[in-house]
Amino acid sequence: MSVDDVATVGCNAKPRVRVLLVALALTLGVGGCTRYEHDFSVGDPARGPGALAGSDEAINSEFSGGTSPAPEAAAVTLPEDGSIPDCDAACRAHCDGLGLDNPVDEAMCPSLWGVGLATQPIDALEACRRIYADLGGRLPGFGEVRDDCRERPLGEVVSGLMAEPEFVLIGQRQWADALRYNNEAVNFERIYDADALVGKLYRGEVAYDEFAAVISAHPVLTRRYDTPGDRAEALFSLLLGRPPYENERSDLARLYALWGNGYYDHPKLQTRLPDAVIEYRCIDEAGGVDDATKGECTSVLWGYNELILEPDFRAQDGQMWSGLLTAEEWEALSAPGRILSGLLGFWEHAVDDVLQQYLGYDLGKQLPEVRQRLIEYLLEHDGDLRAVHYAVATSQVYLQSTATADASAPRYTYGPFKQVEVETWIDSVKAITGYDLSSCDHRLPVPENLIESGFLGTAVVHQSRWDLGDDGDVVGDYRNLARTLGGCPDNSVGGRFKTISILTTATQLGFVTEVCNATLEPGRGAAIAKLLPADIEADTALDADLAESILEAQVRRFFGRPSREAERLDAREHADACAPKPCTAEAFARPLCYALLGGSEMLFY
């Protein structure tokens, strides 16, 4: 159904409908008998309920807690069988005396320091790499490790990165994966709107329960699934992290009975887009609530929740395009999210997700007291999800070393060790080497779909994060690389994956070969200035001292640390063995680049 049809119906309506037209003029963009004006911007095409949620100001300007003083373990003899003793009075007294500020540390103490277990000290480099990868989306350089992480408390580093757009982008990518954005299945305007709503969540401009309510009635969710039961099951998995029981599925599905999958004729793009529609159900022939069938639109498992919309002039053939819904109707339709956000499991899953993101394991299930304390902390900060990110990222459990890990000890007694995300790895290599590579836009997994619609669709893609070549086609080098490695998914069938295999290893090494140009092909690879010390020319004759200085420059740039003695000795030996002689600085720097960027230190942190 086209919006032009709605405008025409309104202009030909009977006088009693004119009152509705006046009331809805601002919402629908219809004034008197003028035709519908679609407020469309190629730079900001977002349209949907996300615009109605949140505010322009963050819920919190700062968070309580932060990093605790480095705690010492109580002098306790641990059982030989490796079991963890219960926290007795002495344990509680020890914890009370530590002066712990961080809520995770407070909850951890009775199972950690209070019973004689210790956390592992961490140096600035290891901490900085972890924080930058998790909150900044790339690995830090030597200058950032030196000036940012060594000179400031780590809590300030975390706060600083959380205030940057990269932190928001990481959250938006995660929700793009969870909601399976695909602009062939869902109107791209809806995807942009949902993405903007996620941006509000990670800037602290909308509380998590309000966010969940809006998402539950958002076309990015409802248009992605075929039946009311499928939508109910998807919402359970999204917000509670589990599939619903059959009675939960069938009951919540009644609140999705009004949603259907249709198409929308875009008046500006002159193309048909997939979008959600409202199918009026539980309505009698007069257009009112049908008492005989209203139970099919009523959830009773979590209280009495009736969801019925009565049709008006906007309806055609029992349907209405969801783009014509009023703010009040969007609010009514968000009942599924409001119901689930009232359950304890909703808040537990929110906390568990953040713990898994930063630690890489299910601490909340191992120690439910940590999960409970973080739920309290989140509610103390009025549902601002950033509070949990801050608490976990400044906790001693997160900010401890993995270098001295004891595999026989409880998992939480040493730091997280994780595989770098695909986009983080690619973006780090780009930043380190200055290599010219395009990018990926999670909002438009299939940009060609829009380009084919014509000039305005191409303009939308041009204003997005995709790069267009001189021929007007999408530059796909980043996308092709990322999708082979499991990132930048198109979400048509499968989504993101993370694995180590012959294919992914070969792809990574192939990209590193391309960047470093170890074979010295003219005009290929990253600029040589990015691989050499300052003031060293590419054709400078190589000797052992120069080889060592090239190694030092690359290790600092790539890994954010000084080189090790064994690495320096190895560089000097390879300088002596370099052939054919005389070797140049470039002839040594490019293969060295391949050896370093292709190693595990770039893939794990």
Question: What is the topology?
Answer:
Blueprint lengths: L2 H9 L3 H14 L60 H8 L6 H6 L15 H13 L5 H8 L4 H9 L2 H15 L8 H15 L5 H9 L2 H4 L5 H13 L5 H8 L5 E8 L4 E9 L18 E2 L5 E2 L12 E3 L5 H7 L1 H6 L3 H16 L3 H4 L1 H13 L5 H8 L28 H12 L13 H5 L3 H9 L13 H9 L16 H15 L27 H16 L5 H13 L7 H13 L8
Antiparallel strand pairs: 1-2, 2-5, 3-4
Helix pairs in contact: 5-6, 5-7, 8-9, 12-13, 16-18, 16-19, 24-27, 25-26, 25-27
Written description of the protein model:
The protein contains 27 helices and five strands. It is mostly helical and 605 residues long. The chain has three domains: 38-217 and 334-417, no CATH class; 422-485, no CATH class; 502-602. The strands form two sheets. A three-stranded antiparallel sheet has the order 1-2-5. A two-stranded antiparallel sheet has the order 3-4. Helix 16 (344-359) crosses helix 18 and helix 25 (544-559) packs across helix 26.
Q: Give the strand line-up of the largest sheet.
A: 1-2-5
Number of helices: 27
Q: Helical amount among residues, as a percent range? A: 40-55%
Average pLDDT, to the nearest integer? Answer: 92
Q: How many structural domains in the coordinates?
A: 3
